[in-house]
Specification:
CATH class of the largest domain: Alpha Beta
Shape: globular
Strand content: 25-35%
Number of strands: 23
Oligomer: single chain
Number of domains: 2
Distance between the termini: 6 Å
Bound molecules: adenosine monophosphate, iron/sulfur cluster
Length: 467
């Protein structure tokens, strides 16, 4: 899958609000952490759909003044972070297509495991693809469906997709939201005080426009929002075990979001508490890697009875560095992003809590700078289990060959990152912390919820160790 895109994205949509464009701008802005490569908005006005999109952050790609002037009763927004393959405006979303059913704007979060096969088949049938996103696969499936109505074509096309995905689709008279049959990727429904319905990858997008959280879109559900209200349907007639991405809870989602009705902040705190019970350390201070690990570090500190302090500060103006194209840039990025508050760490025994350890780049660098600032001991604690398997459902972490826990044992990782001790949360600890059943934990070695064996592109990739 060397050329295939893996998307980390955020989707937003609203129907029935005369400030739909501006509200979508703010909603999309609040999902910025889900993707910083490109951003876009599609607005429906007088049965016309227009799309504005560009590269970079929401504030770079779109102009708030323009969006606040734009008329329209429905709109959708998208932020994207593609991590492999080309980074280009062609792949920026929403994607606008004209089909025999009329205009269509699409936004996607997630990744299809059968995209390559579907694309090949569509190309053989004469479809011409502009870019490399999975959303184009859906739009071509819709365009080529033999069904009479758009709705039936959409349902039929969604049913052909496999993987972890959430789609928002804007047509000339409705906004649709769909979530994969196992609910791997999140999609929530909200409502404004004036009654307009809203869809978003995370509930933090509702808060910013004064809407409230109604419920999660169910796995395999297709929601239609129109002038006359909301309709719920299913695009698959079977039900599968739910497998919501546990990594959303561990790292990806914002701490002020609720997913499946659960607060990400509370879950992260709980994971930190369980980690402290499982792997205590004798230390003077607990520090977290800001911002994503702060709740877990606070949980660890509370459970361990060790004070939590702000030993590391983050430069807010450095975007996420995790998936820089090469190791040198990645290391430079980590260096610019985080620095030490010497007064907190000098002469102290430190527990350093991070939410995850993927390649080990962050831990290695942080332990070095903590020691340079006078830390006597650094005990690394990771608030998730060893990350051993690449994700194929939309969270790009890294190639199998680069995953520390896939290639080294605990002691080797400890030495590589330079910690005095290293411990991870156990898989059981993660399950306990997440409380309900029904999570994907495939990257922690718990097995892929959507079988990959039928997809030769991925099966090959696993054996050769790359994505
Ligand atoms: P690494 O430096 O490769 O060990 O990655 C772990 C660090 O990156 C942790 O501090 C995480 O908070 C962060 N992280 C983990 N997964 C991701 C991701 N998919 N995108 C961006 N950052 C991530
Ligand atoms: Fe999330 Fe990991 Fe499953 Fe991917 S493999 S969907 S990152 S839990």
């Amino acid at each position: 899958m060397a050329d295939e895109l893996h998307e980390e994205c955020g989707v937003f949509g609203i129907f029935g609000d005369e400030r739909a464009a501006l509200k979508s701008y703010w909603g999309t802005f609040s999902l910025q952490h889900r993707g910083q490569e490109s951003a876009g908005l599609a607005v429906l006005h007088n049965e016309e759909i227009t799309v504005h999109k560009g590269m970079g952050l929401v504030t770079e790609a779109l102009k708030v003044e323009e969006e606040s002037q734009r008329l329209g009763l429905a709109a959708m927004g998208h932020v994207r972070y593609s991590t492999t393959g080309e980074s280009s405006i062609v792949n920026a979303q929403p994607l606008l297509m004209k089909t025999r059913f009329g205009l269509l704007a699409l936004g996607q979060n997630g990744n299809l495991v059968n995209a390559a096969g579907l694309r090949q088949q569509l190309e053989q049938e004469g479809a011409i693809f502009q870019g490399t996103t999975d959303s184009e696969v859906l739009s071509h499936l819709i365009a080529r469906s033999g069904r009479q109505s758009f709705y039936e074509a959409l349902k039929e096309s969604l049913a052909k997709l496999q993987g972890g995905f959430a789609f928002t689709v804007l047509t000339q008279d409705a906004l649709y939201g769909a979530r994969d049959p196992q609910g791997i990727r999140p999609l929530a429904l909200g409502q404004t005080e004036h009654g307009a319905y809203v869809l978003a990858s995370e509930s933090c997008a509702f808060d910013v426009i004064g809407a409230h959280y109604v419920r999660e879109i169910a796995p395999g559900e297709l929601i239609t929002l129109r002038h006359n209200g909301i309709e719920a349907d299913r695009f698959v007639n079977f039900s599968m075990d739910r497998a919501l991405c546990s990594f959303e809870m561990i790292y990806f989602a914002r701490p002020d979001s609720r997913i499946e009705g659960q607060s990400t902040y509370i879950i992260r705190r709980r994971l930190g508490e369980i980690l402290a019970q499982e792997s205590p350390a004798v230390a003077d201070v607990v520090i977290g890697v800001p911002d994503s690990s702060t709740p877990a570090a606070m949980g660890y500190a509370t459970a361990a009875g060790i004070p939590f302090d702000m030993g590391l500060v983050k430069n807010r103006y450095v975007a996420r560095t995790f998936i820089s194209p090469n190791q040198a840039l990645r290391e430079a990025g980590v260096q610019l992003k985080l620095s030490v508050v010497k007064e907190v760490v000098d002469g102290k025994r430190i527990v350093l809590v991070d939410d995850s350890l993927v390649r080990g780049t962050t831990s290695r660098h942080l332990i070095q700078i903590l020691r340079r600032a006078g830390a006597r001991e650094v005990h690394m604690r990771i608030a998730s289990p060893p990350y051993t398997d690449p994700c194929y459902y939309g969270i790009d972490t890294s190639r199998a060959t680069e995953l520390a826990a896939r290639n080294m044992n605990r002691e080797q990782i400890r030495k590589t990152v330079g910690a005095d001790s290293l411990a991870y949360l156990s898989l059981q600890g993660l399950k306990t912390g997440l409380s309900q059943d029904g999570w994907c934990m495939a990257c922690f070695g718990a097995g892929y919820p959507v079988p990959l064996r039928d997809h030769t592109d991925i099966a090959l990739d696993i054996t050769k160790g790359g994505n």
